[in-house]
Amino acid sequence: MTGWQVLELVSVQPGIQTLVLDTHPSLLIHSIDCKVFGTGGAPDTSTSLTYRVDPFTDYGSSLNICLPAAALRPHQAFQITVRYTTTDGPAIWWLDSELTCGQTRPLVFTQGHSVCNRSFFPCFDTPAVKSTYSATIRVPEGVTVLMSATHSVFSQQEQAYQFSMEFPVPAYLVALVAGDLQPADIGPRSRVWAEPCVLSSAVNKLGGSVERWLAVAEGLFGPYVWGRYDIVFLPPSFPIVAMENPCLTFIISSILESREFLVIDVIHEIAHGWFGNAVTNATWEEMWLSEGLATYAQRRITTEAYGRAWTLCVCCPAVPGRCACAVRLCLTLCVSCPGVNPSSLMNLFTYEKGYCFVSYLSQLCGDTQRFDAFLRAYTEKFKFTSVVAHDLLEFFLGFFPELKESSVAQREGLEFERWLNGCGPPLSEPDLSAGSVLTGPVKQLCELWSVDPLDLLTIATFDLSTWSTFQIVLFLDRLLDRSPLPHEVMSRLSRCYSALLDGMNAEVRIRWLQIVVRNGFYPDLSQVRSFLHTHTSRMYTVPLYEDLCSGVMKSFAVEVFYQTQGRLHPNLRRTLQQILSQSSAPPLLAPPPPAPDRPADAPPGSTIALRDVNVSA
């Protein structure tokens, strides 16, 4: 992408001589100019500015711009224009035709979370800073462009799309996708976008549901402030399940294989409309303020829409297991890791311990509806701002003065400070017993597979084909936690379930195949090969390659990599090369001989304007 960017700025204090923006080595700066506005509002003559790019961390650089004297006066409005070209940066994912769903036309999308958009455009790449933005994107004929914006217009004559986001957002929520995308309305304020071969499936799975979920969320947390809630389904190379870009959720198309996972993931992204997008964590060290609250809100929405038992079975059985890992990893809810890429701080513990803390705050109120009212007031007070944990907890105690008077923040063993900064699992977990009607059979079957000798007659009475996806996933997760298993147990598991599981969705198959790999079960290794040939998202490939390379199947991993690397996105290809190189696998210089499945020793330009950004020291 080649283009130029205009930052509309105001100096809020005297003595500022340098403007510092986040950038990336892959982003090439051509020139930087400045316009200072006079008393009548008209800009003075444009001035060319000097600048330098300094190393910062392994995930970005520092763009230091020397400001003219006229721009240094407090409350002085001025514009900075940066002309630049993007190259192979982490935010921009270019997909050749063969990497898309339809395999007919190329596609590009951006992924800014957490600190990648500095390779898309120079910015204040921190969730503490929010601004409005507008953009003009010019593309070849036949290419559809979408952005995370509240308004959009297409000019046929100029072959240009114009977008504007009227509400302030952090840099990581500016998102773009362009390709062979077609729309279909699924509600009064929602539509899905997808490649033609995916569109009908997306409409069938979501038609009528999104508006229902939005209405439930509004009843709980107040008005949805972003206007539209659209969804774009992206090819299997999309690196994560979904991303909560305002007005336009990005979601991986393979999620359509599972209705239950689709429901949960879309509702979670809807919840971010209040928690994460409207009210944002000011630092990545407190990411739980976004993900913990959004997870709580997601489960409140599903409880209202589908009932408490369904929510507890589908959403919550993994809470204890996910949080138990904190004991081994010594994790805290608020993480302090200066200089570390914030993306590496994100894990399921952020979601689940954050959810447990928010649930604990709800329990302190004694009434779920009272806590709903608190969350409505919280989002109304802090919307379009960024907050820290102190802001949330201070507002909580102010909203419930009786709790403040009883010193709940210092309750022994459950101190708020200990919740935030203490290592280990949650100090309190929500009551999950209502979900036992669905999780009970899973527990029983897991127990049957753990006794010696196996009671195969009783095991045969459990028909997994009648179970929900989440029951099967919970069953497999528990087997995965116990792996490696005795060889006889693994052989029996394969005879009972392998053929059935191989025909299920990717969320089920990835777990079964991890069990296969961790147990070194070569008879089912052909399923691993087939899966890696058809699924190219990092959320599926990376766990399998890590397991393959940590065991005795490294040669197999290298072989499959060379067979599939042409269909992998360059970013993912580099990640897998690092995994393979860090192991004792053969050097990645030439394709290895086949390994048996058995034991063996510049494009058109864009214009982006960021508005209402205050410059401070």
Short note summarizing the structure:
Helix content is 38%, strand content 21%.
Characterization of the model:
It is a single chain. The protein is an alpha+beta fold and 617 residues long. Among the domains are: 274-337 and 344-421, Neutral Protease Domain 2 (Neutral Protease, domain 2, Orthogonal Bundle), CATH 1.10.390; 436-581, Serine Threonine Protein Phosphatase 5, Tetratricopeptide repeat. The chain is built from 20 helices and 22 strands. The strands form five sheets. The protein has an eight-stranded mixed beta sheet, with no helix packed on it. Strand 18 (242-243) and strand 19 form a beta hairpin. Helix 5 (308-314) packs parallel to helix 12, helix 6 (319-329) crosses helix 7 (348-365) and helix 16 packs across helix 17 (525-534). The longest helix has 19 residues, at 288-306. It starts with a strand and ends with a strand. Residues 319-329 and 585-617 have low confidence and may be disordered.
Q: What is the architecture of the domain at 436-581 at the second tier of CATH?
A: Alpha Horseshoe
The total count of helices amounts to: 20
For the sheet with most strands, the description reads: 8 strands, mixed
**Which percent range fits the helix content?**
25-40%
Q: Which residues sit in consecutive blocks of at least 5 with pLDDT less than 50? A: 319-329, 585-617
Strand order of the largest sheet: 4-3-7-1-22-10-13-12
How large is the radius of gyration? 26 Å
Note the gap between the termini.
Answer: 31 Å
Strand-residue proportion? 15-25%
State the fourth-level CATH superfamily of the domain at 436-581.
Peptidase M1, leukotriene A4 hydrolase/aminopeptidase C-terminal domain
What is the structural class? alpha+beta
Q: Give the CATH level 1 class of the domain at 436-581.
A: Mainly Alpha
Give average pLDDT, whole number: 89
Overall 3D geometry? globular
Strand segment tally: 22
Annotated CATH topology of the domain at 436-581: Serine Threonine Protein Phosphatase 5, Tetratricopeptide repeat
